[in-house]
Amino acid sequence: MTEIASTCPPWLDRFRAEAPRMPVPPMFEPAPGARAAAVLILFGEGPDGPDVLLTERAATLSKHAGQPAFPGGRIDPGDDGPVGAALREAWEEAGVEPAGVDVICTLPELYLSHSRHRVTPVAGWWREPSEVAPGHPGEVALVARVPIADLADPANRLTVRHPSGIKMGPAFRAGGMLVWGFTAAVLTQVLVAGGWDRPWDAGHVEDLPPDVVTLASRD
Prior knowledge:
Keywords: Hydrolase, Magnesium, Manganese, Metal-binding. Helices cover 21% and strands 33% of the residues. It is α+β, with helices and mostly antiparallel strands. The chain has a single domain, classed as Nucleoside Triphosphate Pyrophosphohydrolase (Alpha-Beta Complex). The strands form two sheets. Strands 1, 2, 3, 4, 5, 6, 7 and 8 form an eight-stranded mixed sheet that branches. A four-stranded mixed sheet has the order 11-10-9-12. Strand 6 (110-112) and strand 7 (117-126) form a beta hairpin. 38% of the residues are buried.
C-alpha cells in the first residue's frame, strides 16, 4: 500500500485533486458520539474501462439489508485508522488483496444517521486487481465492478421516492443493482469530483420497489 499513489492513471488526476475537499451536504455532517467507520472507494480499469467496486449486502442482515454499498465497516482497535479498516473490510467482504491497492486520498467524514456512524471514505487505485467474490454469503450477496461510464450515463440515473411520497435522493441502475441511499449520494459527489458527471433528469422520479422498502424498514 502506498499513500498518495504515484501509479494512478491520468483519468484519476482530477478526482485525486478535488476529492479531499469534496463538500459535505448538511444531512451528512458528522454528529458527536457517532461510531467511527470507513469505506473503500476502489477505482480500477477493467474490460469496459474505468470502474468502481460495489457490493450488495445480504438480504438476511438486520441493518441495510439488500443495499448496494462500498466495502467497509467499523474501525477496529487493531486497524491503522480509516485506511487500515477500509482495506481490511474490502479483503473480508470482496477478496480485494490490500497489497494490490494504492491509496489515493481520504475524503471528508460523513455521517450515516441510520446506524449512527461517522464514515471516512478512502479512495484507492486498484494497481494489481485480484479476483473478487462475496467473502461471506451471510453478509455480502454480490460483488460487481461497475463502469464509471454506466454510472454517468443519464439513462441510468433517477431520483427515488419512498411510497409515502418522501424523496430519498439520487439513484443509479448499474451493475445489475438499484444503487440508492448513502452509496448513491457519495457516488454522485464522486462523479462531480472526477469530472465524469453528465447532465441528467433529476425530475425522473420513481418509487422504491416494494422489496427494497421492506428490507429498508428493518433499519
